[in-house]
Automatic annotation (TrEMBL):
Binding-site residues for Zn(2+) 2, renumbered to this chain: E388
UniProt record similarity statement: Belongs to the peptidase M2 family.
Residues reported to bind Zn(2+) 1: E388
Region of interest called Disordered, as start-end residue ranges on this chain: 583-613
Keyword Magnesium assigned: no
Membrane-crossing segments per the record: 681-701
Organism: Papilio machaon (Old World swallowtail butterfly)
Stretch forming the signal peptide: 1-22
Lineage of the organism: Eukaryota, Metazoa, Ecdysozoa, Arthropoda, Hexapoda
Gene Ontology biological-process entries: proteolysis
Keywords of the record: Disulfide bond, Glycoprotein, Membrane, Metal-binding, Signal, Transmembrane, Transmembrane helix, Zinc
Entry annotated with the keyword Disulfide bond: yes
UniProt-recorded Gene Ontology molecular function terms: metallopeptidase activity; peptidyl-dipeptidase activity
Protein name, per record: Inactive angiotensin-converting enzyme-related protein
Length: 721
């Protein structure tokens, strides 16, 4: 109301002052935009209250939310029309921020649908989600009537195939009508594209993702990631169902998943022999009760450590920990007025996701603060990969050995003892979450585009999701399980989330590559360079995200690359190769699979059956054997650590492996100037050590090179196939 009245005055003012100069045009447009945003802001607060009540299951929550969402579409159309009438090239000249705001206001996305169509969309989506969220008669095995949260919790624990299938079926029965979706909801995308000025839905989605040719890029990237996905899939089939099942579609309920987008629940079937770190994490999460608020507090601790800042206590105090996961954030568009609903369950996945959620909160708070709380710069309908990638990156850091140590989940000494075994397990944990997501995201976008463009004949559409999922994802799903997802129900593209996952590994890689210094704590290093993360948060939606990528990565390039991800998972990739085809690299397999039972005790003797890269340790130990013991320790500790830590995790393997031992040598020279009598021995020791290291590095590099070639070959074969 307030805003509308002021708007009236502004219009009057504009009418009266005829013959405006371009400065006046600009000022007028500016005040109009400010007012439009104020209207949005008022509406945002009311909508947030309604959303909140719906999420926590308050009486009439759904009805109020529907009402608010309907009103929002109508408001958005009006405001867009108003801004359109006031825009002129003159008024926009030389003010980039204003240009940006106007652009976002003029293309608000699906709200431009005709009111009747918009209402149909939000009614369908909200009603479906509400039903799924609050149904109390899911099948949970022993318990017959249970909630969604109990269903999720029990699915993770259940081992009986038939029970799992019945659980999944009880969820499927709650999904909305598929025919209605295909006939009346999905096609709205064509209309929304048109209203926003795009010829095709793909162009429209590209524009919402603000990346030129986003979907093309995503397809291209997937071709390079698919081989790893396929390997993980084959390994799972092998472990769960034996050699005969390899290469065939896996039923999603066997993956203890409702729609196959996350395979974390089957981790215990997949762990390599040495999975000490997983057992400890599992136990310590429970001992420390890192679920609900405590998980969020722990995530906040990581943000504090990174000096990204803390979360205002009121936000935690007003949030609700007795709802369902994944976490939903509700933003009231007022400074620090954010709340979230989550589940209080303790699990590794929830712990990791708490880190993402807390970072998203911080992201929103920071953008809002620096956009002067401008509505459209904080709530734009754009799918920013950076908004997904930075929280994702923080969640990767949550499993960093140093973070685990600080969180008292796994001691660093123990980690350093047999690091690659632990690293492998951590990579598996992360891969089971991210690879199925990437696949699901691209599958869901591709399938929807295929349906919309008529590539799939209409007679076959009804069964086509199942078929597509079997072809593309090697998963056996139902025809309609895609309808449990809010992004699908509201016709939103996943392409931004896909690109976010890719980008998070690029961020990881960019920081990890810089660690050629003495400081090997990646988290500390990120803290020292945290402005790279904070800057995009500050800029929020004031620029397109691709423009910020180059600063974020501290590199010249600004494009998405798959190599960050494939390099991150190299250790897992090699492990899967060995597991699937023990003949390929018999050396590795011997050392991986059959470690002696030299219990992972506290002593600092390197394990002789460590994987090849660790043989550096052994040799280093042998060489300077008759020199000063402390020096030896130094060489082993820093040099060895280094190899272990980064050799598999960055693309600059060669650089790191060659540089570090030398750095270690210099370091020793400086710190031990007094040991004159040992000097000669020491130098001989070091020279021999260096020669051996260089030889080893050369061998490893060659092996790695040939391995890489092999991977490339496989990839090509896979792409061709
Ligand atoms: C489960 O709920 C249904 C209806 O919601 C009811 O008919 C049935 O008796 C309930 N079963 C149990 C075991 O509580
Ligand atoms: C798209 O818009 C056209 C014209 O306004 C309308 O006839 C059609 O029904 C709309 N599509 C859907 C799925 O509502
Ligand atoms: C959490 O929700 C469940 C039902 O969803 C209810 O039985 C329980 O009392 C709630 N606990 C708290 C602390 O509100
Ligand atoms: C916020 O306001 C300040 C001072 O009014 C201005 O300098 C700055 O450009 C504004 N930032 C945005 C993003 O609007
Ligand atoms: C699945 O693959 C088969 C054989 O390659 C193909 O005929 C079919 O059209 C594909 N289905 C979908 C939905 O892509
Ligand atoms: C990315 O970099 C290329 C050249 O390296 C440049 O042409 C392009 O405009 C940049 N894109 C963005 C969004 O900054």
């Amino acid at each position: 109301m307030r805003a509308s009245f002021t708007l009236f005055s502004v219009c009057l003012y504009a009418l009266l002052s005829s013959g405006t100069s371009s400065g006046d045009d600009r000022r007028w447009l500016m005040s109009l935009v400010d007012l439009v945003e104020l209207d949005y802001e008022d509406n945002c607060e009311q909508r947030a209250t309604a959303s909140w009540n719906e999420l926590i299951g308050a009486p009439k929550g759904l009805a109020k939310k529907l009402e608010r969402d309907k009103a929002f579409g109508i408001l958005s159309r009006q405001q867009t029309a108003e801004v359109k009438s006031a825009v002129s090239p003159k008024a926009l000249a030389s003010d980039d921020l204003l240009k940006r705001r106007v652009k976002l206001l003029l293309q608000p996305g699906d709200t431009l649908l005709e009111p009747e169509q918009w209402i149909r969309l939000v009614t369908f989506g909200n009603t479906a989600l509400h039903k799924l969220r609050f149904a109390t008669d899911y099948y949970c095995g022993t318990q017959t009537n249970c909630t969604l949260r109990e269903l999720n919790r029990n699915m993770a624990k259940q081992h009986d195939e038939d029970v799992l299938l019945r659980m999944k079926n009880s969820w499927e029965q709650k999904l909305p009508n598929q025919k209605e979706y295909l006939e009346h909801i999905l096609p709205l995308l064509r209309n929304a594209s048109k209203e926003n000025g795009y010829k095709t839905v793909e162009e429209y989605w590209d524009s919402l993702a603000e990346y030129e040719g986003a979907l093309l890029k995503v397809r291209e990237i997937w071709d390079y990631i698919n081989p790893l996905y396929v390997k993980l899939h084959k390994y799972i089939a092998l472990k769960l169902k034996g050699a005969d099942a390899v290469g065939k579609p896996l039923p999603v309920h066997l993956l203890k998943s409702l729609n196959g987008d996350d395979w974390s629940n089957i981790i215990e079937n997949l762990l390599p022999e040495r999975a000490d770190i997983y057992q400890k994490l599992h136990v310590h999460l429970r001992l420390q009760e890192y679920g609900g608020l405590k998980a969020f507090k722990q995530a906040e601790n990581l943000l504090k450590f990174l000096e990204i800042g803390e979360i205002e206590p009121e936000i935690f105090a007003e949030s609700y920990f007795n709802g369902s996961c994944p976490t939903s954030i509700v933003d009231s568009c007022k400074p620090n007025k954010l709340r979230f609903v989550t589940c209080g369950d303790i699990s590794l996945v929830n712990y990791i996701e708490a880190h993402e959620a807390v970072t998203k909160l911080k992201y929103k708070i920071t953008s809002a603060l620096h956009s002067n709380n401008t509505y459209v710069l904080r709530e734009a309908t754009r799918y920013s990969a950076i908004y997904e990638a930075i929280p994702g990156f923080i969640s990767l850091l949550s499993l960093n050995p140093h973070t685990l140590d600080r969180a008292k989940l796994y001691p660093l000494e123990r980690f350093n003892y047999n690091p690659n075994y632990h690293r492998l397990v951590l990579q598996l944990i992360i891969a089971l979450r991210d690879l199925p997501k990437l696949n699901y995201y691209i599958a869901a976008d591709e399938w929807r585009l295929k349906v919309l463009t008529g590539t799939i004949p209409s007679s076959k559409v009804a069964a086509s999701w199942k078929e597509f999922r079997a072809n593309f994802s090697m998963l056996e799903t139902s025809d309609k399980d895609i309808l449990g997802d809010s992004y699908v129900l509201f016709n939103k593209p996943f392409v931004g989330k896909f690109m976010g996952i890719i980008l998070k590994y690029q961020i990881y890689q960019s920081f990890a590559e810089e660690l050629i210094s003495d400081d090997y704590d990646l988290v500390k290093h990120v803290m020292e360079k945290n402005e790279r993360l904070i800057e995009p948060m500050i800029r929020g939606f004031s620029a397109k995200w691709p423009e910020m990528v180059s600063d974020l990565l501290a590199k010249r390039e600004n494009s998405l690359e798959y190599t960050g991800l494939t390099d991150y998972f190299r250790l897992l990739d090699e492990y899967l190769d060995n597991q699937l085809d023990p003949s390929t690299d018999s050396n590795d397999i011997a050392e991986y699979v059959d470690p002696p039972e030299t219990d992972v005790s506290q002593e600092r003797v390197p394990d002789e059956n460590d994987i090849p890269i660790n043989q550096n340790n052994i040799d280093l130990k042998q060489i300077p054997v008759d020199t000063n013991g402390n020096i030896m320790d130094n060489v082993i500790d820093t040099g060895g650590d280094n190899h272990n830590k980064f050799s598999f995790e960055t693309s600059t393997v060669g650089v790191l492996e060659i540089k570090n031992p030398v750095a270690t040598g210099e370091h020793n020279e400086e710190t031990r100037p007094k040991e004159a009598s040992y000097n000669t021995y020491w130098w001989i020791g070091i020279s021999v050590a260096l020669v051996v290291i260089i030889a080893l590095v050369a061998i490893i590099a060659r092996k790695r090179h040939s391995h890489r070639k092999q991977l490339e070959r496989q990839r090509r074969e896979n792409t061709v196939a």
